[in-house]
Amino acid sequence: MSIEQKIICSGIGFLLTVIVGFWLINSGKPYNTGIFTVHKLIALATVILTGILIANLLKGIKFDIFIIILIIMGIISVLALFISGALLSVGNIPYSVGKAIHVIAPISAFISIGLSIFLMLKKLR
Questions:
Q1: Lesser CB count within 10 Å: N end or C end of the chain?
Q2: Residues 6+ apart with CB under 8 A from 10
Q3: Considering the entire predicted model, what is its pTM?
């Protein structure tokens, strides 16, 4: 699979995760187990694919602290998403706090990961 195909697959995975997330929210509480499982699996697959993509891109560029900081921000955002999602599903976090994290973290992840991939591709070419 080429780098471009991996980027497209990561983007589609992110989009599908968001779409299924909206579907999950609109299905009401308690969360539908089937939709919740699909949401988690798509998110996990997207994170793994994106991680492989970033690791492959990092091998081909010279060390850049700004890119590393962006990647770390992306990792923290993804961890916040997984943790807040798990806590929301079991009800161990106030809904408003979990929802706020689950709204802000994907934006942060998208910007930091997207920008890091863009900058790495720019350095490769």
A1: C
A2: 46, 49, 50, 53
A3: 0.89
